[in-house]
Amino acid sequence: MAASSLQLPVFKRLEGKVAIITGAANGIGATTARLFAQHGCKVIIADIDDKNGHSVAEEIGPEYALFIHCDVRIESHVQHAVDTTVSRYGKLDIMFSNAGVAGSRDTSILEASPENINLVFETNVFGAFFCAKHAARVMIPARKGSVIFSASAASEVFGITSDTYTASKCAVVGLCKSLCVEMGKYGIKANCVSPYVILTKLGMSIMPTQDRKLAEEIVAEASNFKGKTLTTEDVAEAALYLAGDESKFVSGLNLLIDGGFTTTNIAFQVAVEKVLGGGEGTTA
Q: What is the per-residue pLDDT for 266?
């Protein structure tokens, strides 16, 4: 008797859903937008990078993607993105607050400047608040939805990134956990994704060297999980899980995508010293 091959069903995990992804013109956001669309989701690409934002939307196609210029530091921009989404699609199921900046690579609290603190907090923290606020405005009456925040492994392990960046990502995780309680009353999930270093444009900006080859060596050497490299696709898959119905009872989670990196506290410094020859200051 000939063996039969198993035919797996084509399953679009976000079929019929609508999502806003901030910071979706590049990196993790762009990869997530593509993946969400592949799973049947209408995606609003919200970003300040008009050129790349339009490019990602055109690549995905008008049936599934729309670009909206949005600076998350400005509440009216976020409000406009949500209002436009609801006007076009009639609802909002998923808000992925992903836009973020690293700021300057200050290695000491003594170097912290008001300008850099304001930039990082206005983008990473105020932006997350505005995204959650205006998503909740639509999701609470519907009594359903998923809010996802991009945090960082720096929210769980300390002394590696700048004080400003670390504090901003800890604030995002705190906001997420608070919203888990508040929005859970209405059946709305709130979760974070917290990746290890990925050498996107943002990732490179917080490395102690701008030589990409050396940066790759540092990231690989510091990783607790050998033989594999974290990619934007990995983070997008985690966001897909948190956005979909498979995680219907998952809320308040800071999902670490770090290969166990946060179980240690010295690997990154050791790697910097090994690769760069004794560099003292690090950011990641």
A: 66
